[in-house]
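RECORD TYPE: inverse folding
INPUT: structure tokens
STRUCTURE:
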């Protein structure tokens, strides 16, 4: 049966009614209704992004006669494997007989699926008029009409890879269209979006849907992407355009699409990413987060340790850990022992590049005064303790870092420790639970952003091609995001305080080798 023309003004609603199988979330409905020039769907697994885009493209082609839509990924092969699969085998079959290629239909699969001709509302009307005039039209007559008149009134979609050309500014020449979709946009560059926006100049054949020059009014660019890093150009675009009505972003949670997913899918996904908070934020909650290559040093860290606005535990010690150098860090933690279990909460941090010990000391004292004004009230805080690396006591021509701190009334303790031994204590802290089954470690991710990012994978071992690859030391310095500084400051404080945990780690050491040398029970094996 031919598609009947709809009188509904809301295109998205008309398409939804054409396929009752499609059950969009509230965010998806808002996406379909939006007239923004640039629209971005940011979401992880099972959020329904690809299906929503397929419905949106079909609706655009149905209501804008003569429309031309490009669906681009980084490579054509990836489009064939994923996006095209959704269109051809999941969406088109559910849209009714109008989206089946019968050989004499408005819908036609071209070039093996790299291109499709889609019926438009006006094309359906014209084809019905032709069939009324020529009720016994032969197949040849129908094909002649479809390849001439039909091609004018139908719309077309193209699946392709992002064009490459040695002249970058002209890469999108010949890609003029009315709707442009970038799939997996996080793999592309900002320049691709800028050049893509410039291609939105396609003329339609329905005057009611075009401007005075004949260009289709409802053109735009759609970005479909998993959430990238907060430093990615997509995240920066969202921040820069938050007051721009022509640019809209939707962050999609998998839970919001649960009605279209198998039972237990969301719970299983959350369980899968429980020990990888960054990927949990990306793939389940649709939020920007840093995900890092390489093996994480703090491999026992999980979402259970994350908190916001941690309250001060009355009677705890305020522990400050210090790391020196041109890049400096201080961590502020609450430590207490309730007679059964040791507890450690990371509450605040100081981090500065291109600094010196005097500025570090002043900055730490200011945070102590403002964030912990009760530091000298023994009914609330049992005392303040400072710890650093033993290297902080090394003498130079200007004295040592420890000596500088002493001039500010700060007297840090230190002890000799092995790197892997102290990391074993750190990971044991992350792993351990109290007698009630709750983690004894927590971190405030709002006031400890660097340490939190280090914990979710920023503090990691090098991958191939990075300095120190194949060794036992974490990646250091700017190439590693400088996460080693804040992690070291925290490590010094924990190792010097957590005596019970240190004893547990010592007891867990096993004799190995001919001389019965005790191993350190950190990660038994790393992968690269």
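DESIGNED SEQUENCE:
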């Amino acid at each position: 049966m031919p598609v009947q023309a709809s009188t509904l003004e809301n295109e998205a609603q008309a398409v939804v009614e054409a396929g009752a199988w499609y059950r969009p979330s509230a965010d998806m409905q808002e996406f379909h209704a939006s007239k923004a020039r640039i629209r971005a769907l940011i979401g992880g697994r099972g959020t329904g992004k690809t299906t929503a885009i397929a419905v949106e493209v079909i609706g655009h082609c149905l209501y804008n006669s003569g429309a031309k839509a490009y669906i681009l990924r980084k490579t054509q092969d990836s489009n064939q494997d994923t996006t095209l699969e959704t269109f051809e085998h999941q969406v088109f079959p559910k849209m009714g007989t109008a989206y089946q290629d019968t050989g004499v239909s408005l819908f036609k699969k071209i070039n093996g699926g790299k291109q499709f001709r889609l019926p438009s509302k006006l094309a359906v009307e014209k084809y019905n008029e032709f069939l009324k005039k020529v009720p016994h039209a032969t197949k040849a007559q129908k094909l002649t009409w479809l390849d001439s008149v039909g091609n004018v009134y139908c719309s077309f979609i193209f699946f392709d890879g992002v064009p490459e050309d040695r002249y970058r500014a002209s890469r999108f020449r010949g890609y003029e269209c009315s709707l442009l979709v970038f799939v997996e946009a996080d793999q592309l560059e900002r320049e691709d979006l800028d050049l893509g926006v410039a291609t939105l100049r396609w003329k339609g054949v329905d005057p009611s849907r075009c401007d005075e020059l004949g260009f289709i009014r409802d053109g735009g660019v759609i970005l479909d992407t998993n959430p990238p890093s907060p430093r990615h150009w997509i995240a920066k675009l969202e921040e820069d355009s938050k007051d721009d009505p022509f640019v809209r972003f939707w962050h999609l949670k998998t839970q919001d699409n649960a009605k279209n997913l198998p039972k237990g899918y969301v719970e299983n996904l959350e369980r899968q990413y429980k020990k990888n908070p960054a990927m949990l934020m990306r793939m389940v909650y649709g939020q920007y987060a840093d995900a890092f290559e390489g093996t994480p040093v703090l491999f026992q860290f999980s979402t259970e340790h994350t908190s916001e606005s941690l309250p001060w535990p009355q009677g705890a010690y305020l522990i400050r850990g210090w790391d020196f150098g041109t890049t400096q860090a201080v961590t502020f933690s609450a430590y207490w022992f309730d007679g059964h279990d040791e507890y450690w909460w990371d509450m605040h941090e100081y981090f500065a590049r291109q600094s010196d010990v005097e500025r570090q000391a002043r900055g730490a004292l200011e945070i102590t005064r403002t964030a912990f004004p009760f530091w000298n009230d023994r009914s609330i805080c049992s005392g303040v303790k400072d710890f650093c690396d033993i290297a902080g006591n090394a003498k130079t021509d200007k004295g040592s870092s420890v000596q500088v701190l002493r001039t500010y009334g700060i007297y840090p303790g230190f002890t000799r420790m092995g790197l892997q031994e102290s990391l074993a204590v750190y990971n044991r802290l992350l792993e351990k639970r109290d007698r009630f089954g709750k983690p004894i470690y927590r971190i405030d991710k709002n006031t400890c952003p660097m340490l939190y990012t280090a914990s979710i994978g920023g503090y990691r071992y090098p991958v191939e091609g990075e300095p120190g690859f194949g060794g036992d030391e974490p990646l250091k310095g700017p190439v590693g995001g400088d996460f080693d500084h804040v992690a070291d400051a925290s490590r010094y404080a924990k190792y010097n305080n957590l005596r019970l945990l240190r004893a547990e780690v010592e007891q867990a050491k096993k004799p190995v080798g001919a001389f019965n040398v005790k191993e350190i029970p950190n990660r038994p094996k790393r992968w690269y």
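NOTES: The domain at 303-518 is CATH 3.30.420.280 (Nucleotidyltransferase; domain 5).
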